[in-house]
Structure formats: C-alpha cells, structure tokens
Predict the structure.
Amino acid sequence: MPGDQSNRQIGLLVPWDPDGAGPAHQRLAAALRHQVNNGRLRPGDRLPPTRILAEELGLSRWVITEAYDQLKAEGYLTGRVGSGTVVAGVRETGTVRTASGSSSARRATPGPGTGELPPGLSGTVDLSPALPDLASFPRTAWRAALTRALATASDVDLGYPDPAGAPALRTTMAAYLRRVRGLDTDPERVHVTQGVRNAVALVSRALRSRGARRVAVEDPSWPRMRDISRAAGLDVVPVPVDRDGIRVDRLPGLDVDAVFVTPTHQFPTGVPLSASRRVALIEWATARDGIVVEDDYDAEFRYDRRPVGALATRARDRVVYLGSTSKTLSPALHLGWMIAPARLDDALAAARDGIGTLAPTLDQLALAALISTGAYDRHLRRLRGLYRHRRTALLTALSASVPGSAYASMDAGVHVLWQLPDDTDETAVLTEAGERGLSLLGLTQCRVGPGPPGLVLGYGNLPEHRAPGVAEALADAVRAAGGR
Ligand SMILES: Cc1ncc(COP(=O)(O)O)c(C=O)c1O
C-alpha cells in the first residue's frame, strides 16, 4: 500500500550541535530518545543505517553504533542483523509495544543520473535557480512507484478526487514532514497542491476572501510569488532582508495582514532567518491576528549538517507551510503540499474551486509510494552529494574568474547569490551573458526597491566539469558590460 511506512529507509532531522559539551554518543542517544518521547519518531520508523547517519552528521560510525546500542538496551529501538534499526514502540508499564507491519527489505532503485545536460540545453546553459539536476530524475524508481500506484489504487480512487488530495499522499506527507522537518501535523491539515506557485495562488485568494488587503514580502524575493499575490488582488509591500533574514521589526508599522517568507534559506540571498527574528515574527502574527506563509522550497538540501527546523513547528495556527517536488524531483511533476491552519479550510476550498485545477491522482499515489518505499530518501541522499560538489565547483570557478563575491549564505540549496562590484551594470551583464549562451536571473529582478547588482546562479543542473567554462563566459560578459 502507498501508505505503508514499514520499510522506510529514512532521512532524519536530528537536532545535532557538533560543538555541544559531553561525549558525542551520549548526546546523540539523548537527541534520539527525545525524538521518540516527543513523538517525532514513532513505532515502526526506520532509522538510517549507521554509515549513512555518520556521514550526514559528520560523526564516526562508532558514535552512531554506540548510541543505537544504548537505545536498544533501553528498549527505545530494536534491530536485527540485515533488517536495520527501528523505533520499538511506546514504553508502557515496563513493556515495549513493537511496531506492526512487515519489515521486508525492498531493492533500491537508483535513477540513471548520467550527469550530462539534456540535449535541449547543449547550446545554452540555463542557470535558473529553479532547476534541479534534470538528468537525475529517478526514472526507474518513478516508474516502479507509478506501477505500484496503479496496482493498489481502488476503483474509488479513480473517481472524482478529494480536492484536498489523495488520502494516501496526505497521510504519507504528514508522516514525512514530521520526520524530516519536525512538523507535527495531521493528514487532514495537509493539502496536496500543484507546487508552490499553485499554493501561493490558493493562499492569496483565501486571504483576500477573508478580507486581507496588504501582504508583506521579502525584498529581495522570488518574483513569481509577488506576481501571483498581486494577481489575487493583494497589495504587495516589500520588507528589506539583511544577514539575519527579513527585517521583522518593520512589520508592525506596515498594516499588513500576512507575510510571505523563506525562513530556512532566504531566496535569493541564502541566509536563514535568525532565532530571535523567528520568535518576533510569530509574536507579530499573534498580536496582529495575521498569517505567516512559509515557503520551504529547498529545505531538503543542506550540506553543512546543521538542520534548520521549519518555522511552522512554532505556531501551527499562524503559519501556512509550503513545499514541492520541483527541486527534489522535477518541476514537470507539478506536485506540492501545503499545511494550513483549520480556520483557512473553507476559504482554501473556495479558492481551489475558483482555480479549478488539481494534481492528478495517480501521480499523487506514485509520490506516496516513492516516499513510503524509501526511494525518495535514497534519491535525496544522492542529490545532496551531487549538489554539494556542484556548489563547490561553481564557487571555486567563480572566485577564480569573476569579480565580486558570494553573499554570506548557508551551504545549502541549489543556487548562490553572486554579488557584483557596485559600479557594474547588471542589465548589461545579463544581455552580454545571454549572447554567450547563458540564461540567468539578475538580482534586480528579485528586488522591489533599489540595491547593489548581483546574479542569482543556479547550479542544480550544472555538472561540475562545465563550471569553469560558465565562469569564464560570465567573466567575459562582465568585462564586455564595462565592469572590471
Ligand atoms: C523561492 C521559491 N519557491 C518555490 C519554488 C518552486 O515553485 P513550484 O513548486 O511552483 O515549482 C521556487 C522555484 O524556483 C522558488 O525559487
């Protein structure tokens, strides 16, 4: 069944501080124990193999094995040779309730991942920050997931669907987001969308129908988000971003009903929203009776091992949480999810009726199968390695060739903001770059107000060996545009 979670080989949000005090294995055991006690890890949840978790946290395998062994001794975890480590169950009056369901191992089905650019891009290099590695789409795993979806879909599933999404995907997504983003939510709160754009359109219409007039956006931000909100009849008010994220202190003076943010990895600057501003943002929303829309568009990709939790974990009644498969699988799938407070349900349903498009049920069921079999986690793990190398290759090539510097962003995501010297004519650079076969997004296109020039460079679809050539072409474009 698509909702079966017995065989997940999982990614895991472990709150881990590499600089914390005390022996690492004890601290890791404490962190995992806490995840079980607070319900983020539940009976039957499969823990990552020791080798994988060791790689992800930058610890030795011994530390992971010690922590797992300690928790097995305490009855929190259980494990057999060959079948992995699993959360044993809720500790009840000295007994351990074991997980139900089969734990039979299934084969991994890695995608082809040739690393070559698709033929259509052989002439132009598309550095759009929106693109993942298109060659890495897990074709084999997706075909298996579609086959599974077709085999398990009931006749009822093939009728007119629930507009909020297929129950199997909503259940799988709720469990997935709890596990990887720490979001404690119910399947009823999960709305399946056709990606973040569709969700922004839905939530903007819903807010407008409930009387909202003005919404704040980060400046700079993703231009599409502003366009979509304006099209829904909202006035968009820019709020500056600095190295700690959006200037939350500006919100009280702006008379806005909602704010759209990218707190995990600000788009396009790449900074996380600081802890104090997270608190202040929720305080603003509570005092104002406002809504915070959290676009968690690339949270799956962190390379420095310090996870940033979702803002929505702090105030589920104030935050609308958005994600999609556009960066993890392919923008062509057009699949996403939204977790919204219950009081927006009616307005969202009306907005959905107004827009009138739904994600195809079989694709929804396939995504549920991809996640519940562990294939999605395996795919993401592979992509994290790929993107980390692509990021390093592009940054190294740029610093060798192009004047300017990378904005002090996190080691994360699939794009980097490259700041050009102040006297550079950004528009001329874009034109010159276009003539050299580079398709680029300029920082000015992301801004509402004025600011220094820059380029938003996506490396998701840029193989390492092409980075030096791209940097040379960019350097040439900057020179031709009159820069240094
Ligand atoms: C900030 C931001 N949010 C979300 C998305 C993804 O949107 P969608 O799911 O509609 O493809 C992108 C893609 O570029 C983005 O830059």
Remarks:
- The pocket of pyridoxal-5'-phosphate is lined by residues 129-130, 195-197, 222, 262, 267, 295, 297, 324, 326, 331, 336 (CB under 6 Å).
